[in-house]
Amino acid sequence: MLLEGKNAIIYGGAGPIGSAVAAGFAREGATVHLTGRTLSALDAVAGDIRAAGGTVHTAAIDALDPGRISAHADHVADSAGGIDISFNAIGLGDVHGTPLAEMSLELFERPIVNAARTMFLTTQAAARHMIDQGSGVLLFFGGDGGRDPVRDYNIGGFQVAMGLIDTLRRQLAAELGPRGIRAVTLQSGGIAEAIPADEPDRDAITEMILAPTMLGRTATFDDVGNVAAFVCSDKAGSITAASINITAGAVAD
């Protein structure tokens, strides 16, 4: 198994991407520590993982709360013997459909401020323990779309937030690389399965993310989990400061 003996914390573990990565980690032998605001939702995901033979723990954590994030990371490190992987998949509170020229400052800055706060807090909490053990992976999700702006659908400050996360990943990789810690982003270009069935613009969003792909599909939840597990494994030990392209050809490197 790729991740046998590894401990992974996942923030936003009840969401579609968080749960997909949790399942991928557990399949490869990691002990998964799911966090989120709603314990009942986390327990539902944990039940599926346990039914498939995985090991998982849950904790109600607000990934914007520095005290709770730090205390939980300390608990995991102390009880499990370390933190090997930290992955943050929380929703950023982004607003779609309103042109920037018509958007309020509050709506524009919400995903940017949330991204800066949660990504800094969660990676810092994990990095403290990873430095002590001389290894670890900080995993991010999304990417900035190959630095190509989205032209056909207004996504507010979300794309700006993605650029912020990519810059943070590069800086963390530079600062923490000498301590054996890697920082990697999974760049998806959008996951069709993750669009809620009750999203009013579901068809338009699906068409937007499918149109530029070369495979005629987006990555699936299984794709996301499998690639995440490989990237966080020792077999990918030379990959850092990198954005791993799982856009199904929507972005050509």
Describe this structure as you would to a colleague.
It comes from Streptomyces boetiae. This is SDR family oxidoreductase. Belongs to the short-chain dehydrogenases/reductases (SDR) family. Keywords: Oxidoreductase. InterPro entries: NAD(P)-bd_dom_sf (IPR036291), SDR_fam (IPR002347). This protein has one domain: NAD(P)-binding Rossmann-like Domain (Rossmann fold, 3-Layer(aba) Sandwich). α2 links the parallel β2 and β3. The model has no long low-confidence stretch (mean pLDDT 93). The chain is α/β, with parallel strands linked by helices. It has a seven-stranded parallel β-sheet, sandwiched between helices. It contains seven helices and seven strands, in the order βαβαβαβαβαβααβ. 43% of the residues lie in helices and 15% in strands.
Distance between the termini: 30 Å
- What does the radius of gyration come to? 17 Å
Tell me the structural class. alpha/beta
Helix percent reads: 40-55%
Q: Would you give the CATH topology?
A: Rossmann fold
**Tally of separate helices:** 7
Provide the spatial order of strands within the biggest beta sheet. Answer: 3-2-1-4-5-6-7
- Average predicted confidence as pLDDT: 93
**CATH architecture annotation name:** 3-Layer(aba) Sandwich
Protein name: SDR family oxidoreductase
Keywords: Oxidoreductase
Pfam families: adh_short_C2 (PF13561)
Family: Belongs to the short-chain dehydrogenases/reductases (SDR) family.
